[in-house]
Automatic annotation (TrEMBL):
Pfam families: Thioredoxin. PANTHER family: GEO12009P1 (PTHR45663), THIOREDOXIN 2 (PTHR45663:SF40). This is Thioredoxin. The keyword Transmembrane helix does not apply. NCBIfam families: thioredoxin (TIGR01068). Belongs to the thioredoxin family. InterPro entries: Thioredoxin, Thioredoxin-like_sf, Thioredoxin_CS, Thioredoxin_domain. It comes from Myceligenerans pegani. Keywords: Disulfide bond, Electron transport, Redox-active center, Transport. Residues 1-105 form the Thioredoxin domain.
């Protein structure tokens, strides 16, 4: 599978409609982004069950701002619509493979239970 282009209009739907989504926040003028691109493309080919999306921060400024992107490239991983990993900087291929493997192994039942407990905590300030 190749990467897909994420935009302000499709970002939320792609995140919610897929089990695992890796997002590469990038820009055309960014040298490290261009260096990371082939690593990300190879990961997409190696992991066809994982959606690999690229979001151009210049073209999708609303989504980049909502995601609080302050440095590029930034890699985010979502599992069942939940952000489970975020890191700025270009990763080498072995590190990206470790991230993908770790995200695949997350027990999402535990994550959802933790989120529910946090949301229902009466001591939590709103």
């Amino acid at each position: 599978m190749t990467t897909i282009e994420l935009t302000d209009s499709n970002f939320d739907r792609v995140i919610q409609d897929n089990d695992i989504v890796l997002v590469d926040f990038w820009a055309r003028w960014c040298g490290p982004c261009r260096q990371f691109a082939p690593v990300f493309e190879q990961s997409a080919k190696d992991n066809p069950e994982v959606v690999h999306g690229k979001l151009d921060t210049e073209a999708a400024q609303r989504t980049a701002a909502a995601a609080a992107i302050t440095a590029i490239p930034t890699l985010m991983a979502f599992r069942q619509g939940v952000l489970v990993f975020s890191q700025a900087g270009a990763l080498p291929a072995p590190a990206l493979a470790q991230v993908v493997d770790a995200v695949k192994k997350i027990d999402m039942r535990e994550v959802h239970e933790h989120i529910a407990a946090h949301d229902n905590d009466p001591a939590r300030e709103n």
